[in-house]
Amino acid sequence: MMANQIGKFFASQREESRVPGIAEHIRKFWDPRMREKIFAHLDAGGAGIDPTVREALESLRQKAD
Q: Is the Cα torsion angle 14, 23, 20, 58 positive or negative in sign?
């Protein structure tokens, strides 16, 4: 839910800024345990995650690997 709220905030930004903005916000401000939980939710199918947020999470995961 919180990730989707962040996504809604960034929806007003330019399209090319949305995914990087969401990913950067989550990287900077979310505790590692929160990130672990949302990645686990994503791995379990990610029910309810907005597509733009999903894309941001996947890009964040790729940078972490």
A: negative
In the block, tokens 């999470």 appear at: 57
pTM of the model: 0.91
Residue 49 region by backbone torsions, left for phi larger than 0, else alpha for psi between -120 and 50, else beta: beta
Per-residue pLDDT of the chain (65 residues; tens, 9 = 90+): 899 999 999 999 999 999 999 999 999 999 999 999 999 999 999 999 999 999 999 999 998 76
Dihedral of CA atoms 32, 36, 39, 45 in degrees, nearest 10, equals -150
Query: How many angstroms separate the Cα of 24 from the Cα of each of 28, 34, 45, 63?
Result: 6, 14, 22, 11
